[in-house]
Design goal:
Length: 166
């Protein structure tokens, strides 16, 4: 593709689709700075591969979101340094990982939580996953993840009779 046509294509893509791509990247990566970088990478890839788009196989937005998905996974692996959160929740720590020493009271309080709340607590507080990734895993919106996490922490603090930190 000629450089001037490529420039026109990039301008048109950014004008018409930047909000869609940026929103999807923020949702996938949970980090605004990474989302902006990844969005630019998507547009570069789309311009390089534009000739492969076939309208008979699907919509342009669907084709574009395929690049979003691929690029988000690549950024997740590269920037976070671990596989993207997918699949089933683990049953427990891996054999080689030592269990953290916690008080019996805390263990009892955590074990008393419903399964979803325990999963939320482990993924957010222990594994350090972003709220977006936890929401995708547990089928919740990011707002619901943050609200539920705050409530779980408050319930644990109340059960353990910890002072209010608000």
């Amino acid at each position: 593709m000629a450089p001037e046509r490529r420039t026109l294509l990039v301008d048109r893509l950014e004008h018409d689709h930047i909000a869609l791509v940026l929103r999807a990247m923020r949702r996938r990566l949970g980090n605004a700075e990474l989302a902006h970088d990844a969005t630019q990478e998507v547009f570069l890839r789309v311009t390089r591969n534009y000739a492969s788009f076939d309208p008979a196989r699907g919509s342009f937005e669907g084709w574009l979101l395929g690049f979003v998905e691929f690029t988000a996974r690549e950024y997740w692996r590269r920037e976070v340094g671990r596989p993207e959160p997918r699949g089933e929740l683990p049953d427990g720590p891996a054999e080689s990982e030592p269990l953290p020493a916690i008080s019996p009271d805390l263990a009892a309080a955590v074990n008393a939580l419903p399964v979803r709340d325990r999963a939320l607590l482990v993924l957010r507080a222990i594994e350090g996953w972003p709220a977006v990734a936890v929401g995708e895993r547990l089928g919740m919106s990011t707002t619901n993840v943050n609200t539920a996490f705050a409530r779980v922490c408050a319930r644990l603090a109340k059960r353990l009779e910890l002072p209010d930190v608000a």
